[in-house]
C-alpha cells in the first residue's frame, strides 16, 4: 500500500510548540483520512526547529465505493417533493427508485452509488485545508501576500511544502496543491549553516537519511538521546556529574537540528550563591545544564551547552560567547542574593512582613498579610494532629511568604520557598522551620515529592486549604478546563500529603476553621471599605465620634455571637461543596492508581467517613472482596434486593423501614437470613469500628449463603400483604447491614 510523506518547512518554530504541533499534524491528517474511508496502518510525526514532518504508512490507493440509501417522500406526495428528491439523489425518474413498505405508508428509496476517488486526489483536497486551519497558539502573516484576504497565517514564514505519495517499490507522485502561492514538490533543505542546499526526496526512509547526511536529526527523541549521552560522557570524562533536567532537555532538543555538546566555565567566586540560583540563572538565560563534582556532590563552576553546529574552531567561540553572557547574569544574581541577605539580617520578622500589608493577594480576599494570618491559624491547628510544634508552625507560617519580597525571587520566581529556606537558615532560624518554608509549596505536580516532616506537612496543608477555601467562598471555582488558580492541583496536593504520609486528620474540622477565617476576612474588608467611605465625609456631615459608633454597630452585627440559620446553612453548603470537590479528586487519584471509580463512590456515598486514609483503606478492602466469588455473588444478591425494594417502594410510594416481625417468618430461609443479618451486622460494624476492613468484608461474605437461599426459595411479593411487607423489610435489612461497609447499590456489576 502507498505511503504519504509530508513536510512543512519554515522559519524557526518555538521549541515549546513543537511537540504539540507534531501531534496536531498527525491527528488532523489521520482523522481526515479515516473520515474519507482511507484507513491507514500507522503514522508518525516529527518536529525540528525548522520543519514539521509526517509519514503515514499503508494508505489504500483508492477510497472504497460507497452505497447508501436515501429515503424520499411517500408515494402520492406532491410533485414538488418528488422533484426535490430526484434532484438531490441524481435519479432521472421515480422508476429508478425502490419502494419501501412502512406502517406509516409506502416510501420511495434511492440507492446512491458513489464511486471512490484516488487517495492522492483526496490528499490534495484535505491537506491544504489542514495547513490553513492549523491550530498554532500564535501565528503571523508575512510578505507581499499578507495584506490580501485569506492569506496564510503560520507560526513563522512557511517556505516549502514536500508532499509525496506512492508505494515503496515505485517512484512516488507529488500530491499536487498550493497554499498561499507555495507549490508542493519533493524539495527540502538541510542544516541552515552546514548543508543549506536543496535536497530532492522521494519517500520517508529516503527523506530521513538525506536529512541526516545534511546535518539534520529529524526525530526529537534521537536528538534528546544524543544530547543526554554526550553530556554525560563529557562530564564523566572530567570527573564531574551532569545535573539531569528533563524539562530543559526537552526544550534544548527543540532548539537544534544537529546537537553538538560542549563545556564552559565561570568564575569560582559565584559558587557562593545558592546552587538553585546558579542553576536558574544558567538554565533560564542560556538553556545550559549545570555540573556537580562527583565526589562532593556540590556544583562546580562548569556548565554544559548544546550548539547547533560543528564549528571550525572546535566550538571555542561558541563556548566563549556563552561564558560572556553567563558571567554578568551570575554577577547580577550574586548582587541580588547579597542584597537579600542584608535585608534579612537588618530587619525583624515584623519589619519584613510590614510590606505585605500593602500587597493585595486578591481583591476579594484581602492582603498577603491577612492571608499569612489565616495560614498561621490553620498551621497551628494542623500541627496538633501531625505531631508538630504549634509555635514553630506559627513562625514558619509567618516566614513562608517572606522570600516573595526578595530580589532573587523577583528575578527567578521558580526558586520561591527555596530561597526562603536559605534566608531563614542564614538568619539563624530552626532547621525544621527553614525546611517547612521550602516544602510548603509541594507537591507542585503529580511527579513532585510531598513534604514528610511534621512541620512541613502542617504548613503545606495550611497553605493549600486556605487557598482552596478562599477561592471557594468568593466563587472562583474551577469550571471545565479552566482552573486559573490551580485549585485542582491544590486539592490533589492535600490528598497526596494526607495519603502518602498516612495521616489521620479530621478534614471537615480544618475546612470549617478555614471557612471561619475566610468569612472573617470578608467582613474585615467590608469594615475597611466602610471606614474609608465614612472618613471621606466632612465633619459637619458626620463627626468622628458618630462614625466610630456606626463602625462598632456594623462590626457587632457582622460578628454576632450566633449566626442566623440562613447564613449557617449557606456556610455549611460552601464547606460541603468544597469537601465534595476534594472527594472527587480522591476518586480521580484512586483511578490513576488502578482502583475502580465506583468503589470509591460506594464508600463516599455513606457520608460517614471524614478520614481520607480510612476511605482509601476501605476502598482497597472492598476491591479485594469483590474480586472473590463470595464478593461477586453477594453483590448480585444485594443489588437484586435493592432493585426489588426500589420497584416496590415506588409502587407503594413509601419506604419499607423498621424491623421485620419475626412472628411473620413462615419459612426457614427467612429465619436463617434474619439471623445471619443480625450476626453479620454486629460483626461487620465492630470490625469497621476497629478499622479492620478485611475482617468486615469476611463478615459480609457470611451473608452470601442465606441470601442465595432466600431468593431461591422465598417469593417476596406474597399474596398476604403483611407477609409481603415483612419480607420487603427483611430485604431492607440486607441493604442496611451492608451499608456498614459501603453503599453496594453504587457498585457496577
UniProtKB/TrEMBL annotation:
E.C. designation(s): 6.1.1.14
Q: What is its main location?
A: cytoplasm
Q: Which SUPFAM superfamilies match?
A: HD-domain/PDEase-like (SSF109604)
> Which keywords does UniProt give here?
Aminoacyl-tRNA synthetase, ATP-binding, Cytoplasm, Ligase, Nucleotide-binding, Protein biosynthesis
Question: Does Aminoacyl-tRNA synthetase count among this protein's keywords?
Answer: yes
**Localized where?**
Cytoplasm
User: What molecular functions are annotated in GO for this chain?
Assistant: arginine-tRNA ligase activity; ATP binding; glycine-tRNA ligase activity
Q: Which GO terms describe its cellular component?
A: cytosol
Q: Which InterPro entries match?
A: DALR_anticod-bd, Gly-tRNA-synth_bsu, Gly-tRNA-synth_heterodimer
Q: Which superkingdom heads the taxonomic lineage of this protein's source?
A: Bacteria
Q: Biological process GO terms, please? A: arginyl-tRNA aminoacylation; glycyl-tRNA aminoacylation
Tell me yes or no: is Transmembrane helix among this UniProt entry's keywords.
no
Reactions the enzyme catalyzes? tRNA(Gly) + glycine + ATP = glycyl-tRNA(Gly) + AMP + diphosphate
Q: Where is the DALR anticodon binding domain?
A: 638-736
Q: Which family does it belong to?
A: Belongs to the class-II aminoacyl-tRNA synthetase family.
Q: Whom does it interact with, and what assembly results?
A: Tetramer of two alpha and two beta subunits.
Q: NCBIfam families per the record? A: glyS
Q: What is this protein called?
A: Glycine--tRNA ligase beta subunit
Q: Which organism is it from?
A: Bradyrhizobium barranii subsp. barranii
- The primary gene name is glyS
Amino acid at each position: 500500500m502507498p505511503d504519504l510523506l509530508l513536510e512543512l518547512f519554515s522559519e524557526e518554530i518555538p521549541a515549546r510548540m513543537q511537540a504539540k504541533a507534531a501531534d496536531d499534524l498527525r491527528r488532523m491528517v489521520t482523522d481526515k483520512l479515516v473520515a474519507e474511508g482511507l484507513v491507514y496502518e500507522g503514522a508518525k510525526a516529527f518536529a525540528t526547529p525548522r520543519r514539521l514532518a509526517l509519514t503515514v504508512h499503508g494508505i489504500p490507493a483508492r477510497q472504497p465505493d460507497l452505497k447508501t440509501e436515501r429515503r424520499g417522500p411517500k408515494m402520492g406526495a406532491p410533485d414538488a417533493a418528488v422533484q426535490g428528491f430526484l434532484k438531490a439523489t441524481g435519479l432521472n425518474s421515480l422508476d429508478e427508485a425502490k419502494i419501501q413498505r412502512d406502517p406509516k405508508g409506502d416510501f420511495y428509496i434511492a440507492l446512491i452509488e458513489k464511486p471512490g476517488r484516488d487517495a492522492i486526489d483526496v490528499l490534495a483536497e484535505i491537506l491544504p485545508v489542514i495547513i490553513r486551519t492549523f491550530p498554532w497558539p500564535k501565528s503571523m502573516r508575512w510578505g507581499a501576500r499578507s495584506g490580501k484576504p485569506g492569506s496564510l497565517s503560520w507560526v513563522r514564514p512557511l517556505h516549502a511544502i514536500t508532499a509525496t505519495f506512492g508505494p515503496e517499490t515505485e517512484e512516488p507522485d507529488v500530491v499536487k496543491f498550493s497554499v498561499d502561492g507555495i507549490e508542493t514538490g519533493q524539495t527540502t533543505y538541510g542544516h541552515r549553516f552546514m548543508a543549506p542546499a536543496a535536497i530532492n526526496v522521494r519517500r520517508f526512509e529516503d527523506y530521513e537519511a538525506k536529512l541526516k547526511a545534511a546535518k539534520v536529526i529529524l526525530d526529537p527523541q534521537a536528538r534528546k538521546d544524543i544530547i543526554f549521552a554526550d553530556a554525560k560522557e563529557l562530564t564523566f570524562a572530567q570527573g564531574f556529574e551532569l545535573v539531569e533536567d528533563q524539562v530543559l532537555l526537552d526544550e534544548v532538543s527543540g532548539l537544534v537540528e544537529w546537537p553538538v555538546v560542549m563545556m564552559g566555565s565561570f568564575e569560582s567566586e559565584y559558587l557562593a550563591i545558592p546552587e538553585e540560583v546558579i542553576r536558574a540563572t544558567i538554565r533560564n538565560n542560556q538553556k545550559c545544564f549545570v555540573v556537580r563534582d562527583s565526589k562532593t556532590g556540590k556544583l562546580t563552576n562548569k556548565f554544559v551547552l548544546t550548539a547547533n553546529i560543528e564549528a571550525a574552531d572546535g566550538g571555542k567561540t561558541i563556548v566563549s560567547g556563552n561564558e560572556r553572557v553567563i558571567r554578568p547574569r551570575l554577577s547580577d544574581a550574586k548582587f541580588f542574593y547579597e542584597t537579600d541577605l542584608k535585608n534579612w539580617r537588618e530587619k525583624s520578622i515584623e519589619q519584613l512582613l510590614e510590606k505585605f500589608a500593602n500587597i493585595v493577594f486578591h481583591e476579594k480576599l484581602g492582603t498577603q498579610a491577612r492571608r499569612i494570618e489565616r495560614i498561621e491559624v490553620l498551621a497551628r491547628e494542623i500541627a496538633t494532629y501531625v505531631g508538630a510544634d504549634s509555635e514553630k508552625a506559627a513562625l514558619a507560617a509567618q516566614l513562608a511568604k517572606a522570600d516573595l519580597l526578595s530580589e532573587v525571587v523577583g528575578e527567578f520566581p521558580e526558586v520561591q520557598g527555596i530561597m526562603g529556606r536559605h534566608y531563614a537558615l542564614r538568619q539563624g532560624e530552626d532547621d525544621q522551620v527553614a525546611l517547612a518554608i521550602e516544602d510548603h509549596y509541594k507537591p507542585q505536580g503529580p511527579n513532585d515529592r510531598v513534604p514528610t516532616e511534621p512541620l512541613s506537612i502542617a504548613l503545606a496543608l495550611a497553605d493549600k486549604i486556605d487557598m482552596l477555601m478562599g477561592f471557594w467562598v468568593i466563587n472562583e471555582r474551577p469550571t471545565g478546563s479552566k482552573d486559573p488558580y490551580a485549585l485542582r492541583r491544590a486539592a490533589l496536593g492535600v490528598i497526596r500529603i494526607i495519603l502518602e504520609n498516612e495521616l489521620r486528620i479530621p478534614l471537615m474540622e480544618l475546612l470549617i476553621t478555614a471557612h471561619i477565617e475566610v468569612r472573617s476576612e470578608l467582613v474585615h474588608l467590608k469594615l475597611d471599605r466602610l471606614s474609608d467611605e465614612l472618613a471621606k465625609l466632612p465633619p459637619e456631615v458626620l463627626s468622628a465620634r458618630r462614625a466610630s459608633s456606626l463602625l462598632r454597630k456594623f462590626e457587632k452585627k457582622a460578628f454576632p455571637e450566633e449566626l442566623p440559620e440562613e447564613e449557617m446553612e449557606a456556610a455549611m453548603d460552601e464547606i460541603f461543596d468544597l469537601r465534595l470537590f476534594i472527594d472527587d479528586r480522591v476518586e480521580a487519584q484512586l483511578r490513576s492508581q488502578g482502583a475502580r471509580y465506583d468503589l470509591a463512590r460506594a464508600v463516599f456515598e455513606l457520608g460517614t467517613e471524614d478520614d481520607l486514609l480510612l476511605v482509601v483503606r476501605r476502598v482497597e478492602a472492598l476491591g479485594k472482596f469483590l474480586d472473590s466469588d463470595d464478593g461477586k455473588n453477594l453483590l448480585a444478591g444485594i443489588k437484586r434486593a435493592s432493585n426489588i425494594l426500589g420497584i416496590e417502594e415506588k409502587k407503594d410510594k413509601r419506604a419499607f423501614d423498621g424491623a421485620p416481625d419475626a412472628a411473620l417468618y413462615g419459612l426457614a430461609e427467612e429465619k436463617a437470613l434474619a439471623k445471619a443479618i443480625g450476626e453479620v451486622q454486629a460483626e461487620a460494624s465492630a470490625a469497621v469500628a476497629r478499622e479492620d476492613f478485611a475482617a468486615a468484608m469476611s463478615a459480609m461474605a457470611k451473608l452470601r449463603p442465606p441470601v442465595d437461599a432466600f431468593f431461591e426459595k422465598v417469593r417476596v411479593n406474597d399474596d398476604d400483604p403483611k407477609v409481603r411487607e415483612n419480607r420487603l423489610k427483611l430485604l431492607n435489612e440486607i441493604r442496611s447491614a451492608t451499608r456498614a461497609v459501603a453503599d453496594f447499590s453504587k457498585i457496577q456489576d
